[in-house]
Design goal:
The complex is a heterodimer of chains A (248) and B (732). Chain A has 248 residues and is α+β, with helices and mostly antiparallel strands. Chain A is 35% helix and 12% strand. The longest helix of chain A has 15 residues, at 232-246. Chain A is elongated and about 60 Å long. Chain B is of the alpha+beta class and 732 residues long. Chain B has a domain at 338-494: Succinate dehydrogenase/fumarate reductase flavoprotein, catalytic domain (Flavocytochrome C3, Chain A, domain 1, Alpha-Beta Complex). In chain B, the strands form 6 sheets. In chain B, strands 4-23-22-14-20 form a 5-stranded mixed sheet. A 5-stranded parallel sheet of chain B has the order 9-6-5-13-21, sandwiched between helices. The relative contact order of chain B is 0.16. Classes of the chains: A alpha+beta (248), B alpha+beta (732). Bound molecules: flavin-adenine dinucleotide, iron/sulfur cluster (SF4) and FE2/S2 (inorganic) cluster.
Chain lengths: 248, 732
């Protein structure tokens, strides 16, 4: 198929960017979206033009690196799908595809479609852990049975890949879904309960400091989350936060 | 004269190959080297050298007796070695640890767990990764599970059994003491991860669940759906974050290690490139730990992430560390087949699927043809017309034979013309029987009608979905077929590298102060790795081994004081890196880096892949050499070095892959036996099974860099088997 691509090009963080149009031909339906961009980049290099920069690594939907807004939707049109898992059979010849970075005031553009999501790491550093040293003499793993529903719930929250689509999808650039997922994972496990009070306060404090907006319950985050993390995690986050504040 | 076709003197050739002039003369008179006489003097064309360099007698070989580096395996019975060793090695006091800096390159399971644990112990850690966050290290992609000898299932598992399975699975090419230690600490890993809040799968009683993997007869694999690597890595990442928050770990994301710095023979730092600003930076430390993962991407197409590379390990090799068994690569039997030339990477379908999936091809060629022409569906082929070739050939282990065996068996069927897709390079992985079996069980246990076929199928599918849901979804997204309804198509793909930087029992390379852990080292898996053992090894190294063994070395360093990055060695290393970068930008037009990477990948796959032979390997060596020359002459990297430039990063990685690829082929050519993933066509049994040669090859091939354009030297570490008897592997 033949396509027109309109892609955000921006040389550096503080330089102005703009959409550029590119024509691309003979794209096969079995190609992934990123393989289509590979084809474009090879062509640009052959023409002596700088290729389009975009983040990617695993190309199988698990590392959370890929981060494109495709036709206005973070990770593109399919639900439960990362950019790297999107395939060209989803498009038709003659289509124009708009490709932009994950925007958000806390996600400055580094180059073209690459953004800086280190704010997510700093939120995790503020409290996204259980304070346990490695010793080789912790209790046996089966000493504390965990009811399967709790374990499954914790797992569902822990499935977040830290991609930032929730932020990019939100008109307020809120990171509540991301933070809620981590807080809920630990809230559902006995191991996480000990520090639950400080954890939620510290993570939320860091989230605000990074400049993420507040949540107005539009649900856009869940709709675009490639791992279908539920907004129930935001409810848990709010509950844990209020509980901690009341107990302070 | 063409510059590439110089005529060299005997002395020049001897220097180049690092052998005596007498040796060259001997080879000339025996006809092994072609020469011409110009003005009465022997001259040898550089092309001739190109085809001869490396292989066989021309490589300098040093026998086992002369192995120059003690492997530091402790004395005493196998079961006591690690305890005794821990009790007797040097320690660094808590007060002194504060004065010691350690660099860790990599934040996968190995690097993140090591960084966190070293920081907990009191060391100052600087951790590096090339991704934008340590959480994205490639360990995140591991699917199936992690082994541990917990014996929770009461099926007779033990440390010894895990040890034995690993030695046997590795086809008797790994070091007993290291493997035993791995088994010994495996249980601690699960305890530690659960304590961190890793949400492993549990049964209805709330206890941890297990599954089986290939090559073993017990259920010892812990898992978190198909996302085990993700959950384990997020656990290690959380431990790392805690130490970053305490100020004990300084994290450098989007940084690529470009070289190692040695001062007075000791590793004292690294040179990195900041991938955002392009800046070349110096970082000093008292020890450097390489945890940079595997080098499967030398094949271009593999299940590794796009950025996975050999650069860190390779730079260590070029600074003098031994590189062990480079040709030991794992080709994983169950991956999604290649769909076309555009393919950028391959996707694994976890081995755990072989618990429930049955592998087959049609028995009759007519059916194969109809399938390829889409005139017949696989579900329409009768049970009797299917060849469940693994069950047929290996009745004891069936679909759960080790990976190397399963991969070769698939290749054998496809080479014989039974491949089921248009390229003939695919076999079926079928869940139909499992769906029915589970569905019937569920119907009976829930008091429903087990004779109702559609009910049984629905119930069965639900169970399969709970077990492998995300894998099935991933398959459907890529292939656009529903694996609940029609069998998956799979084919082997490059997945893991058992070879890597040589380390002693303390996980130190042959460079003092430089350590290697995780997939980057060679240590535990011999010639073939068993499923779910890489995650185990990465975390064993990082949580439970390196943090203690590193003290043995650092105990001598407590008075050293901070490392001066103004030292001339740092400046020299930095210059080496800058020279490389300038050189790469010299060409103002030419071919993209990927062009070279794909070419290299094709040579590797065709000639150094699932089966290898002497002629193929020889031609691979010379093809790679020519490709390397072409690369430096014609590669084009647009943009400049002072900015985010992925093409530049790729160029550095491919430059190292080109060198590694050559050593890989040289190693494969030298090992005149078949073992594990290394299958030499010349060495097989009448039934086509790998034929090991224990009397001549029970050693680790440890290659030592001898300088640019010189053949490397082969050192051999003898493998001693004291607890296990060498046997030919049988899974029948
Ligand atoms: C698809 C897939 C599925 C797998 N499934 C399983 C499984 O179920 N069970 C199992 O046991 N094993 C599995 N494996 C194998 C296992 O995942 C890996 O062997 C293991 O995770 C490697 O961990 P590591 O810490 O050594 O390296 P990695 O996780 O690869 O980490 C490498 C780190 O080094 C950094 N790095 C690399 N080069 C540089 C450089 N030059 N400069 C700076 N940083 C650098 C990277 O940024 C990264 O942080 C799987 C592998 C794949 C590919
Ligand atoms: S919650 Fe979903 S969208 Fe947000 S970071 Fe996690 S996986 Fe991405
Ligand atoms: S590249 Fe890893 S999730 Fe898309």
């Amino acid at each position: 198929m033949d396509l027109t691509l309109k892609i955000w090009r921006q040389k550096k963080e503080y330089e102005k960017g703009a959409m550029h149009a590119y024509q691309i031909k003979n794209i096969e339906p079995d190609m992934s979206f990123l393989e289509m961009l590979d084809v474009l980049n090879q062509k640009l290099i052959n023409d002596g033009v700088e290729p389009v920069a975009f983040d990617h690594d695993c190309r199988e939907g698990i590392c959370g690196a890929c981060s494109l807004v495709i036709n206005g939707a973070p990770h593109g049109p399919d639900s439960g799908t990362t950019t790297c898992q999107l395939h060209m059979r989803r498009f038709n010849t003659g289509d124009t595809i708009y490709i932009e970075p994950f925007r958000g005031s806390a996600f400055p553009v580094i180059k073209d479609l690459v953004v800086d999501r280190s704010a997510f790491d700093r939120i995790q550093q503020a409290g996204g852990y259980v304070s346990i040293n490695t010793s080789g003499n912790t209790v046996d793993a089966n000493a504390t049975p965990i009811p399967k529903p709790d374990a499954d719930e914790a797992f569902n929250s822990a499935a977040c890949i830290g991609c930032g689509a929730c932020v990019a999808a939100c008109k307020n650039s809120s990171a509540m879904l991301f933070v809620g997922a981590k807080v809920s994972q630990y809230a559902n496990l006995p191991q996480g309960k000990v520090e639950s009070k400080d954890r939620v306060i510290n993570m939320v404090k860091q989230m605000d400091k990074e400049g993420f907006g507040s949540c107005t319950n539009t649900g856009a985050c869940e709709a675009h989350c490639p791992k279908e993390i539920s907004t129930d995690n935001i409810l848990t986050l709010n509950r844990e936060y209020i509980k901690s504040k009341l107990n302070q | 004269m063409d510059k590439d076709r110089q005529m060299l003197s005997i002395k020049e050739v001897a220097d180049m190959l690092n052998v005596s002039q007498k040796t060259i003369r001997r080879h000339i008179s025996s006809g092994k080297i072609q020469s011409v006489k110009l003005g009465g003097i022997h001259r040898i064309s550089s092309e001739e050298i190109n085809t001869l360099l490396g292989p066989e007698q021309l490589v300098q070989v040093s026998p086992c007796e002369n192995f120059p580096f003690p492997n530091k395996v402790p004395e005493g019975p196998l079961e006591n070695k690690w305890e005794n060793h821990k009790g007797s090695i040097n320690l660094v006091s808590p007060a002194n640890k504060r004065n010691i800096d350690i660099i860790v390159v990599g934040t996968g399971l190995a690097g993140a767990s090591a960084s966190a644990t070293l920081a907990e112990l009191g060391y100052n850690v600087k951790a590096f990764c090339f991704q934008d966050s340590p959480r994205r290290a490639h360990s995140i992609a591991a699917q199936g599970g992690i082994n541990a000898a917990k014996n929770y299932q009461g099926d007779g598992d033990s440390n010894y059994r895990l040890f034995y399975d690993t030695i046997k699975g590795g086809d008797y090419r790994s070091r007993e003491a290291n493997v035993y230690r791995l088994a010994e600490v495996s249980g601690n890993i699960i305890d530690q991860c659960v304590a961190q809040g890793v949400p492993f799968a549990r049964d209805y009683g709330g206890l941890l669940d297990n599954r089986s993997f290939g090559g073993v007869l017990v259920s010892r694999t812990f898992y978190a759906k198909g996302q085990t690597g993700q959950q384990l890595l997020l656990g290690a990442y959380s431990a790392l974050n805690r130490q970053i928050n305490r100020g004990k770990v300084e994290m450098f994301s989007r940084h690529e290690m470009m070289d190692l710095v040695l001062i007075e023979g000791k590793a004292r730092g690294i040179i990195t490139r900041n991938l955002v600003t392009g800046e070349i930076e110096r970082h000093g430390a008292h020890a450097v730990v390489i945890a940079s993962g595997g080098y499967g991407n030398v094949f271009y197409l593999s299940t590794n992430a796009m950025g996975s590379n050999v650069t860190a390990g390779w730079k260590v090799y070029k600074n003098g560390a031994l590189f062990a068994n480079p040709c030991f690569t794992q080709i994983h039997p169950t991956c999604i087949p290649v769909s076309g030339d555009h393919q950028s990477k391959l996707t694994l379908m976890s081995e755990s699927l072989r618990n429930d999936g049955r592998i087959w091809v049609p028995k009759n060629k007519e059916d194969v043809i109809k399938i390829r022409n889409k005139e017949l569906k696989p579900t329409e082929i009768a049970e009797n017309d299917r060849d469940y070739y693994l069950e047929r050939r290996y009745p004891a282990f069936g679909n759960l034979v080790p990976r190397d065996v399963a991969s070769r068996a698939a290749k054998e069927r496809c080479d014989a013309g039974y491949g089921v897709n248009k390229t003939g390079q695919a076999v079926y992985l079928d869940f139909e029987s499992a769906i029915i079996r589970y569905g019937k069980e569920k119907a009976v246990s829930s008091g429903q009608n087990a004779e109702d076929n559609s009910l049984v199928k629905r119930l069965g599918k639900e169970i399969i979905k709970a077990k492998y849901g995300n894998l099935f979804q991933m398959y459907e997204k890529i292939v656009d077929e529903n694996p609940y309804e029609t069998p998956m198509q799979i084919f082997p793909a490059v997945h893991y590298t058992m070879g890597g930087v040589w380390v002693d029992y303390n996980l130190m390379t042959s460079i003092p102060g430089c350590f290697a852990i995780g997939e980057a080292n060679f240590s535990d898996h011999g010639a073939n790795r068993l499923g779910a053992s890489a995650l185990m090894q990465g975390l064993a190294d990082g949580y439970f081994v390196l943090p203690y063994t590193i003290g043995d070395y650092l105990a001598d360093d407590i008075k050293t004081g901070p490392i001066d990055t103004e030292a001339k060695e740092f400046k020299l290393a930095e210059k080496r890196v800058k020279d490389f970068v300038f050189n790469i930008f010299k060409n103002k037009s030419g071919k993209p880096v990927d062009y070279y990477h794909k070419k290299l990948g094709k040579i590797m796959w065709d000639k150094c892949g699932m089966s290898r032979n002497k002629d193929g390997l020889k031609s691979a060596i010379s093809e790679i050499r020519n490709l390397k020359k072409d690369f430096y002459k014609n590669v084009f990297v647009p943009g400049d070095m002072h900015e985010y430039n992925e093409e530049l990063a790729k160029a550095g990685r491919v430059a190292d892959f080109l060198e590694l690829g050559e050593l890989f082929a040289i190693d494969a050519l030298d090992r005149n036996e078949s073992c594990g993933g290394h299958f030499r066509e010349e060495y097989q049994t009448a039934e086509g099974e790998a034929l090991r040669n224990d009397s001549d090859y029970t050693f680790v091939s440890c290659w030592e860099f001898q300088g640019k354009d010189r053949a490397p030297k082969l050192n051999k570490e003898r493998l001693l088997f004291e607890s296990v008897k060498l046997k030919s592997r049988s899974y029948k």
